[in-house]
Design goal:
The protein is mainly α. It is built from nine helices and no strands.
């Protein structure tokens, strides 16, 4: 009994440690680990935020410097624009080949492409006129002179068309009134060629193959220009443009 009392007093005031309790050293070690973990996570979040901000700034700068891409034909390349315009003609292949062979420094719109088609028509008509001038056939001299006169008249009308499209900076090359005038002039130029052919047939003149081929090309190019100017308003709409 005395021994039990002594043991009781020896254990008085002491608390048996629970399994989950830790010593001060262990608590300090755990706190340090938690602090290190918090600092590590905070650092990762901080650098992630910095990286996200940097990417946002870079993306914004690129969007400001790069040109806007539009699905409209106005932003398409020259070949696509020419094909679209030539698509309204009866001979798209000849139209595309003749116009795309010219030196085009900018992305052309329908007005520019039409102007180029006129230049092709003028070049071919000048070549045709020179062939008739150089041909010396006594039996058809009068008819040949009439043809050259008709060609000169046609060239005058085509040059008037080009002159009508010469405008100042920021001005539109074509208006509804100009389109009607140019249609009339090109139609008249085509009539001049028909008059030439009628005169040759009446005199029984036989043209060399080269002259026949050149005349056919000239008529083809004139019909191309006429088709484009006739559809100009619709073509401009395809390019998100308007006629004044």
């Amino acid at each position: 009994m005395a021994m039990e009392s002594l043991n009781f007093f020896k254990g008085y005031g002491k608390v048996n440690p629970l399994p989950g309790d830790q010593s001060p050293y262990q608590q300090k070690s755990t706190a340090s680990k938690r602090l290190i973990l918090i600092i590590s996570v905070s650092s990762i979040l901080f650098f992630t935020l910095i990286l996200a901000l940097a990417l946002a700034v870079l993306t914004r700068d690129q969007s400001n410097t790069e040109p806007d891409e539009s699905p409209s034909l106005a932003s398409s390349n020259s070949a696509e624009s020419i094909k679209t315009v030539c698509g309204v003609t009866q001979n798209p292949s000849s139209c595309f080949t003749s116009i795309s062979s010219l030196n085009i420094s900018t992305k052309p719109d329908p007005e520019v492409i039409f102007k180029l088609s006129l230049k092709v028509s003028i070049t071919e008509l000048k070549h045709l006129s020179s062939l008739f001038t150089s041909l010396h056939d006594v039996n058809s001299q009068a008819a040949m002179r009439d043809c050259v006169s008709q060609f000169d008249d046609s060239l005058g009308k085509l040059n008037d068309s080009l002159l009508a499209m010469e405008v100042g900076p920021g001005e539109k090359m074509l208006t509804l009134e100009k389109v009607k005038d140019i249609q009339t002039w090109i139609s008249a130029a085509m009539t001049d060629q028909d008059t030439c052919i009628d005169g040759l047939e009446e005199t029984g003149s036989v043209l060399p193959d080269e002259m026949k081929a050149t005349m056919e090309r000239s008529k083809d190019f004139l019909s191309i220009s006429l088709a484009i100017i006739s559809k100009m308003e619709a073509l401009l709409e395809k390019f998100d443009l308007k006629m004044h």
